[in-house]
Structure formats: structure tokens, C-alpha cells
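dumping the sequnces here before i forget
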Amino acid sequence: MSSERKSALVLVAHGSRRVVSNDEIRELAARLAASQANEFFMVQPAFLELAEPSIPDGIEACIQRGAMEVVVFPYFLSAGRHVAEDIPAEVKIKQAQYPHMPISIADYLGIAADMPEMILDHLRG
Amino acid sequence: MSSERKSALVLVAHGSRRVVSNDEIRELAARLAASQANEFFMVQPAFLELAEPSIPDGIEACIQRGAMEVVVFPYFLSAGRHVAEDIPAEVKIKQAQYPHMPISIADYLGIAADMPEMILDHLRG
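..and the predicted 3d for all of it:
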């Protein structure tokens, strides 16, 4: 994922009726984009429901800004129906519309192999 | 949180109708307990709803096993109603029952300052 390939990251959260929760995701996307470790040329927040933009609209925003590759990242902790079915169904809409654009879905956060260490680091503050 | 103080960690997830999602949390608790970075003498999974044990039952299990301190960790990504209200209400039940036992609630995972780097590490696999 070199920047030459212009890879875009779509940070997907569930979406909430609480505006502050959705803003927290938008802020996280901005922090991701600003991180020194970041290799994506843009980080786009998107929501499965209850907030805007939707996942297809988020992917579209990346393509309109010149993405040559889009990675959809489910910011979820467990492999529920949302991760297993709902997000892939939303992504498929854009994959069908742009058959030559690589649009992939990354592993959801909760499956991270080093989650125990992430948690213990977090608890030590 | 030295082991001398016998601190217990309660890993709190939402709970799901999907058995596999709840088992994923139980497995994460076991991985946390087994981690070399772990300082808790036990790690107890608990669920806000839809699965067992409940948060009060999870805290009780720690106390029955000799915990001198209980840290309740919300394994949640956003500060929704569950984190802001529901988990504290459940914890309060046990704080009232054991007024001399230190039972605290740690920051939820999503607020971690280094979440962007956690995510980018995860995406690099």
C-alpha cells in the first residue's frame, strides 16, 4: 500500500443516534490520516447506519478524490452479522459499479492477534 | 496493580445472540489472562446483555476467588449509552454491596490515545 498507488482507507463504524459518538469516529479518521504511521492518502469515515456518509457514499468519495485502491476497514470488535454480512453487502454495491477498482475489506479490529497486548497497554495508560 | 494486591480484570462486552461472538470474548479473556504482559491474577468475561455472566455476576466471581481489587474494562469502541450509563449502573450494584472493595471502571477501549497506531499496525497485519 504505497502512497504511489493512492490507497484510500474507509473507516467503517456502526453509527449511532448520538451525534457525539459519530463525531468521535470522524475525529478518529482525522487522527488516522494525520498519523506518522499512515500510508493512505486519505481516510474516509463511513457508517453502516444511523449516520452519514453510508459505506457506498464513503467509497465513492475516495474514488472521486482519485483513489486507485480502496480498503474498507470494519472498526468493530466482534464478528457479528454487521461484519459478516451487512458490510460486505454494502461494499458489493460499489464493487459491482467499479469492477476494475480494487475495493477490499480488511479484517475487523477485534480479530487482531495482539489485541490482548493492546488492551493491557491501554489499561496501563 | 501488582499481583500482590490480587487485582482482577472484568472484560465487559455487549453480548450477542450469536454464540460464536460471545465465545470470541471468552477466548479473548483467556488470551488476556495468558499474556506475558498481564498483571491481573484473573480475567473474567462478562456481558451487558444477551449472554452470561452478567456484569454483577462477573464481579462476584472475582470476589469469590479472592480479588482485593476489581477493574471493570468496557471492551467498547465508542462512548455510547452503554459505556456512559448502562455499565456504570451495573457496577454500582456491586459497589453498593461491597462498599470497602475497590471496584473501578477503566476507560473504554475506543478512547485509547494510540488507537490510530493500533489500527495501522493491525492493517499492516
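The first strand of chain B starts at residue 7 and ends at 13.
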